[in-house]
Write a structure and sequence with these properties.
The protein is of the alpha/beta class and 269 residues long. The chain is built from 13 helices and ten strands. The strands form two sheets. Strands 1-2-3-5-7-10 form a six-stranded mixed β-sheet, with helices on both faces. It has a four-stranded mixed β-sheet with strand order 4-6-8-9. The termini are far apart.
Length: 269
């Protein structure tokens, strides 16, 4: 394994085939939730892959039967109380999206089980996204009491249309892998036990293709996402402003206490 990946703690790496780097998100006992360490690693790994001459294709998956269960609640709590943490995670969240978009190598995601938070950012921004039929894709921002920032505004309307994007993002409804394929949110849906096999099959085809043609096609297509950059920047700013307010505190408390949130309907907004 190249020394460039030796410092990673939450991301594990292997080479299932020559020139195919497989990244596994691993946070044992927490369904691969993105804590502070993983969040930072998911931000920078795409720059390392972009600069690695040995990588033609990257696959992203989760350890075990989950893709990623979303943001770590301890990190969220720290964000509501500590400006330095809030500012650091905002920068990481911004860079995470743009680093995936600007990575020249094609990325394949293999999503099964829960797919939420920073892991979902990478899963849906991947060039080829593959979901198991029973995957549960959830953007849970408004349930937490903050705007749907992350990746949602930059890619959901483009993938599945504004009507579906508003429905799922405003209500935080779960999307199964099967439904995600039907509405165009993911590239492919396969049986749960075929997700990793299919991701490797797709990666092998990409690795055998013409590198410049594939990378330049990706670059050109991703200009659709770059054009949505101002929309994304606004959504992310509003999300992180929300972490300083009462809705985020109530949303976090309700998740910790496993109860329905009691948001104030008389908000001045």
């Amino acid at each position: 394994m190249s020394d460039r990946y030796a410092s990673y703690k939450r991301l594990k790496f292997d080479w299932p085939q020559e020139r195919i780097l497989r990244i596994t998100m691993e946070n044992p006992g927490r369904l691969n939730a993105a804590d502070a360490v993983m969040h930072g690693e998911l931000t920078r790994v795409w720059r390392d892959i972009d600069e690695d001459p040995d990588v033609s294709v990257a696959i992203l998956r989760g350890a075990g039967e989950a893709f990623s269960a979303g943001g770590d609640l301890d990190l969220v709590k720290d964000m509501t109380e500590n400006f330095e943490t809030l500012a650091r995670v905002w920068k990481e969240a911004r860079d995470l999206v743009y680093n995936v978009i600007n990575c020249s190598k094609p990325v394949v995601s293999a999503m099964q089980g829960p797919a939420v938070g920073a892991g979902l950012v990478c899963g849906l921004l991947a060039d080829i996204s593959i979901a198991g039929r029973n995957a549960r894709i959830i953007d849970g921002h408004t349930r937490l009491g903050v705007a749907a920032g992350d990746h949602a505004a930059i890619v959901w309307p483009l993938l599945c249309g504004m009507a579906k994007a508003k429905y799922y993002l405003l209500l935080c409804e779960a999307v199964s892998g099967e439904e995600a394929e039907r509405i165009g949110l993911v590239s492919l849906c396969v049986d749960d036990d075929k997700v990793h096999e299919k991701s490797l099959e797709v990666a092998e085809k990409l690795a055998r293709g013409a590198p410049s043609a594939i990378r330049w096609t990706k670059y050109a297509l991703n200009n659709w996402l770059r054009m949505a950059g101002p929309t994304f920047d606004t959504s992310l700013a509003l999300e992180f402003m929300g972490f300083t307010g009462p809705d985020a505190r109530e949303g976090l408390a309700s998740l910790r206490e496993k109860r329905r949130p009691a948001f104030n309907p008389d908000s001045p907004l």
